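Following up on my earlier thread - several people asked me to post the actual chain instead of describing it. Fair enough. Here it is, all 270 residues.
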Amino acid sequence: MDLTRTGDPEMADGPLGARQHARLAAAIATAVGGWLGANAWFPGHGQRVAGAAVRRFLRVYGSRPAADNAGGSRFNACAWLFVLTRLIAPRLIIESGTHRGQSAWLFRQAAPDARILTFDITHQALSHRQPGIDYRLGDWSDADLPPVDADTSLGFFDDHVDQARRVREAWARGLRWLVFDDNLPAHLLFVTGRPPAPTISMLFDPSLRDGERLAWTRRGRPRSIDVDQEAWAEARRLIAHWSVLPDLAPATGCRPQTGLTVVRLADRPR
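Reply from S.P.:
Thanks for posting it. Predicted structure:
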């Protein structure tokens, strides 16, 4: 792949030649490998699969449908989504937040045989429909779904909806592997127009006192949310493990991610 021909503003300049591309792939793989080593999510084969996934991602990224996916997943987030999909190897992928359609396209590249359903309340921004993907209008929580197997299903939430709510819904519908975008800590809620608060990080922030009002401004407009530890406790109990994915910006030179986070929910009692 020639990154200089992708049309991505983040990659208007890029490495030339096979050896330079190999160095970029190695830098990304090292960052991914460090996370895998610190989190026992994918024992045994994880490092090998991740390295191959990074190289595959760099080959397919240049053919993506949205040259500039502003407002959606961009280079660093796409790299993580591709790698995680290859590691989890889901047979069912449910996405909430279709936007232009780039992440749904990316999931198809990473999981060619998976069934993919993507949901949004509007398709106004949707510019690419990938054959074989089910594009649906409306919220995922009240939609009919195919059978969900906990170990081979993946949910991706980039929809600016309360992440505690999405955790409860995902657990109730049988999902266990989840990825969230915009998992912002309490002091950074101002960086996006509609923060999905409470976020995963907020659920586990011991400094947040029950009843505390978190207030901020976004483009001059005041916003706020009240901490409700009792209401948040249910979602907290459903989360077995979670990890904010390391920012790939130091390896790629692209803009930082905004809290991309992988979550493993608790198993249902047998």
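The chain has a mean pLDDT of 89. That should answer part of your original question.
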